[in-house]
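Thread: magnesium ion complex, take 2
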Amino acid sequence: METKREFLKKLGLLTVGGVVAGAVSPAIAAGSKGKLVAPGKSVGLQLYSLGKELTDDLANGLKKVAQIGYSTAEAAGYGNGKLYGVEMSEFRKMADDAGLKITGTHVNPPMRKYTKENMGEIADFWKKTVEDHLKVGVKTVVQPGMPEMETPEDVAIICEVFNKAGEIAKSANLHWGYHNHNGEFQKRIVKEEDKGKTTNRWAPAGDVAYDLMLKGTDPKLVFFEMDVYWTVMGQNDPLEYFEKYAGRFPILHIKDRLVLGKSGMMNFENIFNKAYQNGLDEYYVEIEGIRDGMTQFEGVKLCFDYLNNASFVK
Ligand code: MG
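Output below.
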């Protein structure tokens, strides 16, 4: 028997469906691949979630992602001008055949320390990366790894490099963004004049690296793809950031400790509500190593079902 909560959830979906279709419509409609997808929803997946289960049989793996109900995906396998070892155009064909749009990609430049001397080399790397990804039809190129930084001067160079990457992407009609882990919140950058000053353990010295990157980059050139799980792991509240830096987070990584909604440490209803108010356009599910004998594909499906059934996800 369905619970009152489930019944109310369905009512929520019915209302949305009715508005979208302008008439009485079923709570959920069959997607292009026959999967039941709630009307108006588009759920994305970061392909990193599948690891070897995807790369062992790429073409079929992409089909399975679409069959679960995902409509978009963000890649994470760029190297040597290829994606997951196949030519960009061939990868696009595989995704097209699967009915999956590859809307984004995660790429790290080969150097982790940015200097005045290697800035040009990094810019060349982004030019080539953008050029290659145009063949796949992505809209966004995102850097998921934190460069090395210790001083305010390091941060200034990083922001300059990020702005330049954003400019390169923009000139090809793409958007360039940065994806965080927890380190960006734990890393503090101390100004020379503040070194050695006494602080208490609740307020360590220095500025939060993530904030410095938000403040130091041009909002017209650099967006931030917040990974909400890693933000919480960095002991921060995603909602505070959405409000404080409204419009900077058009895309999110929706991640939990394991399967979405299971840990109790992520309030996704609050996260989505606040993110929508502050400019959220799309999001990608991400899940890392699954336990309890589950496959990555099984975990990825449970995450899809969670968001597909959630009335707070539009
Ligand atoms: Mg992530």
